[in-house]
Amino acid sequence: MKCDKYMGMDVRQATTVVDVVDADGKPVLETIVATEAAAIIRLVQSLSGPLHVTFEETTQAAWLYEVVRAYVTEVVVCDPRRNKLLGEGSKADKPDARKLAELLRAGMLRSVYHGHEATRKLKELVRAYETLSIDTERTMVRIKAVYRGRGIPTPGRGVYQLRKRDQWLEKLSEPGARQRVAFLYEELDLVRSLRRRAKQAMLVESRAHRAVSLLRTIPQLGPIRCALIVATVDTPHRFRTKRQFWSYSGLAVVTHMSSEYEIKEGRVVRSRKPIATRD
Predict the structure, then answer these.
(1) Of 18, 209, 248, 269, whose CB neighbour count within 10 A is largest?
(2) Does residue 113 fall inside a structural domain?
(3) Stretch 166-179: mean pLDDT
């Protein structure tokens, strides 16, 4: 009867350190292979018996998960923040690979969920939309920061409006600051355009997923939020309770406070603006 084997992989950009132990913890194999799909598949196929593989959640984790999962009994992509044992003793690639194999054999690793292939395209489009949304917000913050750094108040969103930009630029007496904001305005226009395109591509892809249609029947959930939930969650069945599911999906109650005080008629008064609540 072939016994189970446990493989720990310490993945780097060019090479991957591999350490394999058997069910009794005895060393079976120690080697270094290129971080390439063909080399890793050859190594996995050379080992007989049920094979359990683990590696940490890194930049290459999603790719490596797809590479090996069809050739092994189990793949555990583990959370490096919870692998306390790796912080003990010598800190190097070979000891780390051995420790991962031992932790996997002992069942002490906490896995990071990796989704289904069916949602991969939607995930990538959602990431593109979220990244461009963040870039848009950052550019807007940078524009306001230049004005506020010179004592020029920037209430509302008028400072971003195309027809008012010349008026705002005239308020900057320094030529360098004026040119800097002009560049930022150009960046804002480009990022906004890319964000609109990413949004449209994301929504088109989301319509191919039945879960999105089901989520749309819930009041207050629009097409963007539904696409984000499906791409992020993949399946609600991986959560133990519905409370965990709602919280992870970003549907828990969140309050936001901004500018608690404001100036009216030359006096500092507490703002009467209600605290924003997102369900």
Answers:
(1) 18
(2) no
(3) 95
Q: What is the pLDDT of residue 8?
A: 95
Shared domain check, 225 and 181: yes
- Residue 244 is assigned to a structural domain of this protein: no
Q: DSSP letters along 83-117, please? A: -GGGGSS--SHHHHHHHHHHHHHTT---B-----G
- Same domain for 94 and 157, yes or no, is no
Query: What tokens appear for 234 in the block?
Result: 């993949």
Distance from C-alpha of 148 to C-alpha of 154, rounded to nearest angstrom? 7
pTM recorded for the entire structure? 0.69
Residue 35 carries which DSSP code?
S
pLDDT at position 85 over 60: no
257: DSSP letter: -
The pLDDT value given to residue 271? 72
Residue-range definition of the domain harbouring residue 214: 118-238
For helices 223-233 and 120-148, give the axis angle rounded to 10 degrees: 120
